[in-house]
Design brief:
The protein has 149 residues and is mainly α. The chain has 6 helices and no strands. InterPro entries: TPR-like_helical_dom_sf (IPR011990).
Length: 149
């Protein structure tokens, strides 16, 4: 559900929802695959925003309190500047941020060696330490080559 909500949000964003909103990157509007099919939309669709909002709401409602909006009040906004600052800070510093769908807290990297293990390619880490690296912060060339450029 979280993946679906995130993908629908990307689909609704200006990059994938209007050739008029490409911020100077008009060449994207004409970008096509090998068969000539346009890769970016040729018109704006407001229904994409509704689908994205509905998917996010469904995710929040069905997760039993696991996801929620930080600092949401009945009025829909913080009560004071201090509240707004605290909510903003919580978004980035709280390891149990209920608003984040996909995140990793910096607190999980207790030292540089843990970061090094998840950031380096599998074979390289094995030669250095005897244990494989995680290679979770990058993609393989095979994955890059999968997409038409």
């Amino acid at each position: 559900m979280a993946v679906r909500a995130r993908l629908l949000l990307y689909a609704a964003s200006p990059l994938f929802n209007s050739p008029d909103n490409y911020s100077g990157l008009k060449e994207f509007a004409n970008l096509a695959n090998k068969d000539g099919k346009k890769l970016f939309p040729q018109s704006y669709d407001p229904e994409k925003w509704k689908r994205a909002a509905d998917a996010a709401k469904l995710l929040i409602d069905t997760q039993g309190g696991r996801y929620d909006l930080i600092g949401a009040t009945a009025e829909g906004s913080p009560n004071s500047f201090e509240d707004a600052y605290a909510y903003y800070r919580q978004v980035f510093n709280d390891p149990f941020n209920k608003e984040a769908l996909f995140s990793r807290s910096p607190a999980i990297y207790d030292d540089f060696s843990e970061y090094l293990q998840v950031a380096t390619p599998l074979q390289y880490m094995a030669r250095l330490t005897g244990s494989n690296g995680g290679a979770v912060l990058g993609v393989t060339q095979k994955l890059v080559d999968t997409y038409y450029m």
